[in-house]
């Protein structure tokens, strides 16, 4: 059978990894796919650099439209990132009847509804395993492996940069700023790290997972997003003392009122496997009503892990290339006419447990005031820790772990607590999840 | 579209779980699959018991051939277990052009080559996600999620019963016999536990994973199988002191001489995530050349976890029911005409590290003799531990951890060590794996 012919948009980290894998494992991949998969052309930013790196086997161009239009390209692989021109190029490829593989989480989270609807109209596949958690086949697991289940929740460490920073803060007691600087030095964080450290990248990936877990359209604009830049090594240390680790989790959960869609630092029990996922590694814990909890772990970024996911998609698309669209797995796991209109629960409506750290004056009655306010707001306390004040210090850290409560109740309580004259400065509030059921 | 019609062979744990999931999640599953999936008939052993349990929605029979022959059955689901009559029934279904879903690892490990060859001849699918690691979608991950990769090795905790026993031995210092008795009391081990504790069940599952990882036929007869029944709490404790856990691992690994296929107790570093998979849970660590290490964790047995995998297969088969066989994923991941003739490396040819415990007389020169024998056989020592003899004891435990060496060299060394007059009784030898790369 003739080789399947690929056009790459972008030959950077992910594009280069994809190209290398297709070359190195050409035979192994053909033994699986039933035909060879060849990259025939690639659009790059710097022609000379790409030529030096990848030789002359490849038709190179600086014009991405050339790749989309090329009559000998069967599948367009978009690995350039960003919203435009990626969006226009993908839509153009779809309208030419070409299948698309992309790793572009931001684009799918923001414009996935438009892209998938257009793909359906033109009867082509848009595959995106590489968009979430790099080489971990989590899209396939959620979309095909767990189809028996009503998915109850998904909780994932889906940003390697912030997980690396949190790991350094815990292991070395480093400050956030120092850990970020180290991540930048090692190439794990970009010069402008906002997307990674403020949870935006994680929210993109979470949006995609929620869509296929619950059968809902992409609702990135309704995701609650809170990053790790305000975390202190002290809070990580206190959490440890209670038997918890702090991870930046993306959580989507089905509730009676819709579904939650939130990214924030989270205390999780250290005995949970996912609490022990360190460094740049990713892991996703999925709870289904039939299977219970399953966990998927691996490298969430990097040239070849990302390329591994792209090539898996290419093999899938190669197999189904000429198949009737009815035989294909729906883009968002559920048949397009059977998507749900579940609402996103606003963060104020989320029910969870909390870690609460207060800076209190070391004088009588403070604890009585605080615990009274918590009780008045229906918040019950699971554990408490108060440190001896350091020599010459007039303030002490008081930490509470609470039982599950409504976020709006916690907000109300915190406002009252911060208004106490015996409380110095703002309260630190970090959400907690047991992930047990 | 008309519902897909299912006939169940067996309505015990796995069959009952499958039936319940299909009922409870009927709508959710149809939203994914594009049509409903109905169980129309089931063959059971005890008609009255089944009627009492599942009511009258279902045509029940004690004759499994009736289910295979029934003209309104599109897919036959074999969940009775054992070799016969399961094998004959599956072959009969295939020859009638019916697709098959099975959880029967023993049957596939022993007769998979015959079954898949017949399935190909008749153009039907035989799906078997539930045969390995229950609800964890590991077959899908290996067969479809990691197609970009040259798989280097797979190492799995794939028998929940023995993992439960090992967990109790470690947590409680229980003896093997006591931990087994507890597992039997809790229903985790059968009255005759041989298959679970002697590694046979794990070897069945490993055989299947090796086939799809490397693209080789089933070679169960060449698997090396060693169980946990001879392990002592003392060895588990000593392993701990060196920073290791002991797990029953199924390992298949590509080498220059073929591939290894072995099940045995294994020391693994406690910092490895898989070392912390406890109780009846399963986990599989897969090393691919592109993706690096990925791990898959979840419930390896039980009614609904197994049913979850069966139903996922049913959805896949439902989607591809009328598709051209060329569009389907090959049974063993690789195209049937592109399977490899890789040999199984005999256990004597395996290279690995070792934990070696000797019972030595407490007198001068013993260590010199032992270390000389190890050196003469080219075995270098990574760590050593010698206990003070207990009051009145004349023998002491001496434990060595070795660097990687050939199993046959270790066998030769052990024979010579056991022949020393200063060594009391047989040496305890447990293999070690770093699982790092």
Features:
elongated, Dihydrodipicolinate Reductase, domain 2, Rossmann fold, alpha/beta, 437 residues, Alpha-Beta Plaits, 11-stranded mixed beta sheet, homodimer, 15 helices
Explain the overall architecture:
The structure is a homodimer of 437-residue chains. Chain A has helices at 13-24, 26-33, 47-54, 64-69, 86-95, 105-122, 138-145, 160-172, 176-185, 194-197, 200-214, 233-241, 303-320, 366-376, 407-418, and strands at 4-9, 37-43, 59-61, 75-78, 99-102, 126-127, 151-157, 224-225, 244-255, 258-269, 281-288, 292-299, 351-361, 381-386, 395-402, 405-406, 428-432. The radius of gyration of chain A is 24 Å and the shape is elongated. In chain A, strands 7, 8, 9, 10, 11, 12, 13, 14, 15, 16 and 17 form an eleven-stranded mixed beta sheet that branches. Chain A has three domains: 4-136 and 303-338, NAD(P)-binding Rossmann-like Domain (Rossmann fold), CATH 3.40.50.720; 138-299, 2-Layer Sandwich (Dihydrodipicolinate Reductase, domain 2); 348-432, 2-Layer Sandwich (Alpha-Beta Plaits), CATH 3.30.70.260. Chain A has 15 helices and 17 strands. Helices cover 37% and strands 24% of the residues of chain A. In chain A, helix 8 packs across helix 9 and helix 14 (366-376) packs antiparallel against helix 15 (407-418). Chain A has 437 residues and is an alpha/beta fold. The mean pLDDT of chain A is 96. In chain A, 56% of the residues are buried. Strand 12 (292-299) of chain A pairs antiparallel with strand 12 (292-299) of chain B.
């Amino acid at each position: 059978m003739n080789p399947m012919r690929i056009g790459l948009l972008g030959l950077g980290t992910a594009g280069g990894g994809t190209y290398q894998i297709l070359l190195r494992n050409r035979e192994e991949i053909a033994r699986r796919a039933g035909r060879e998969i060849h990259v025939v052309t690639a659009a790059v930013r710097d022609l000379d650099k790409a030529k030096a790196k990848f030789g002359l086997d490849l038709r190179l161009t600086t014009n991405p439209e050339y790749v989309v239009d090329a009559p000998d390209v069967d599948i367009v692989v978009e690995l350039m990132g960003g919203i435009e021109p990626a969006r226009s190029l993908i839509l153009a490829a779809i309208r030419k009847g070409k299948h698309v593989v992309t790793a572009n989480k931001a684009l799918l989270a923001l414009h996935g509804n438009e892209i998938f609807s257009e793909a359906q109209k033109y009867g082509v596949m848009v595959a995106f395993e590489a968009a979430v958690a790099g080489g971990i086949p989590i899209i396939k697991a959620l979309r095909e492996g767990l189809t028996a289940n009503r998915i109850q929740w998904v909780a994932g460490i889906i940003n390697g940069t912030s997980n690396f920073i949190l790991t350094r803060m815990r292991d070395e007691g480093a400050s956030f700023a120092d850990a970020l600087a180290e991540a930048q030095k090692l190439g794990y964080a970009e010069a402008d790290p906002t997307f990674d450290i403020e949870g935006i990248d994680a929210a993109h990936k979470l949006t995609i997972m929620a869509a296929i877990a619950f059968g809902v359209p992409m609702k990135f604009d309704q995701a609650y997003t809170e990053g790790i830049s305000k975390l202190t090594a002290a809070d990580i240390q206190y959490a440890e003392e209670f038997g918890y680790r702090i991870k930046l989790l993306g959580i989507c959960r089905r509730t009676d009122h819709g579904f939650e869609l939130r990214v924030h630092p989270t205390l999780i029990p250290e005995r949970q496997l996912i609490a022990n996922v360190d460094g740049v590694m990713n892991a996703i814990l999925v709870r289904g009503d039939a299977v219970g909890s399953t966990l998927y772990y691996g490298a969430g970024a990097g040239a070849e892990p990302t390329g591994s996911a792209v090539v898996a998609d290419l093999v899938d698309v190669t197999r189904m290339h000429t198949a009737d669209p009815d035989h294909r797995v729906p883009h968002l796991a559920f048949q397009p006419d059977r998507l749900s209109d579940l609402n996103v629960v606003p963060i104020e409506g989320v029910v969870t447990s909390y870690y609460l750290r207060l800076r209190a004056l070391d004088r009588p009655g403070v604890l009585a005031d605080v615990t009274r306010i918590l009780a008045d707001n229906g918040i019950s306390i699971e554990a408490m820790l108060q440190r001896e004040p350091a020599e010459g210090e007039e303030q002490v850290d008081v930490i509470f772990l609470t039982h599950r409560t409504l976020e709006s109740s916690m907000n109300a309580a915190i406002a009252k607590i911060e208004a106490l004259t015996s409380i110095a400065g703002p309260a630190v509030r970090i959400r907690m999840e047991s992930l047990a059921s």
